[in-house]
Amino acid sequence: MFVRLLTTCLLLLLAGGLFAQEVSDATRAKDARRVKALLRLENVDLDTLPEAQTSLLRYLETCRGTDEYITLVRRFKLRAAVPELLQLAADKGEETIGVEAMKTLLDFGSNDAIEKELCGMEEAQALKLLSSLRLAADARGNALLMTLVENSERGMPLRAAAVAAVGRNPAGQHLLLLLVEAGTLAKELNFSAANALLSSTDETIRTAAGKHLALPVTADTKPLPTISEMVARTGDAAAGKSIFATTGTCLNCHKVRGDGKEVGPDLSEIGSKLSKEAFYVSILDPSAGISHNFETYTFLLEDGTVQNGILLSQIDDEFLVRTAEAIVCRIPRDAVTEYKKSAVSLMPADLQKALTAQNLVDVVEYLATLKK
Ligand code: HEC
To answer: Domain 296-341 adopts which CATH fold?
Structure first.
């Protein structure tokens, strides 16, 4: 009896589900027709068409995260979609759809919403949102980006990414140049600013920037090409693999498929995570690309010693710290006068000194092959 009741209930539930599905299919078809009709009209005022508006909103729910969603939001100027657009720009900041979401936000004049979102986000997410702004290369984002560039409360990776983003358009390059000329740009941002300004298509900007900024010199005593120039080159992955293990000294700190030491992140699958551009930033300006979980801590000990390293754990009465030499040190808690997270990466910032530009291009080509 009980079993039969249960079966009946299940059947009813199933039928209910199917029925609901049928209705929603029909509604969806109707919604799709109405949306199509709306698209044919010019100068639509949705407020005068409540039924069509309801259909449109319901239809949008079914195509979240697609190009069609953005097209419709844009076409009908649906400002209620701002939170969804912000989400898309952050989740897919390096894809066309994320960039389109960002451009739509700028069309809507939603700069305050973008800024608020950036303020509230964790660094990793904020970096993704910044990617969409950088790739949009749209001067309308400059003011909010400059606020970030100058905000000393935010981490260097975020500020460096803001420099790269603002430096993608000529108006932004002018703004950066003003800071550089006034000497008010934080020096940790010089590398990003040099890359942005020295790769400007405007010769006057390049010349003016060249008076204050230079890219670091490589093993053959030539200054590095800009990151955008190196990204455009093709390297030799096999040569890169051997440089990684020898002159590059990378294997002293990174593991790749079992080889190497683990001061920094394991790079076995790094090609699936970073773009070529991001590789160059990670290698040449490590403090601008510090990866999560690998922040350096500086410990000031009672006897005056300073110890830098990556904090592995804090257990009981001691800190466990991995140094740049891949040594794990135990530091007794009561020997520590002070400790703090450092803004500087444990990865050396002058690795290019031992490498030529071509070596770097080869190493990056190699890293890009390390995929899942
Ligand atoms: C002294 C140790 C050290 C050396 C040498 C070193 N790295 Fe690193 N590397 C690190 C640390 C620590 C991090 C994590 C902190 C950061 O992101 O800056 C890191 C981060 C990276 C990242 C970013 C990884 C991610 O998940 O975002 C890349 C890429 C990288 N290193 C490549 C290289 C290459 C290529 C070389 C050689 C040319 C090299 N490293 C040499 C310590 C080192």
So the answer is: SH3 type barrels. (2.30.30)
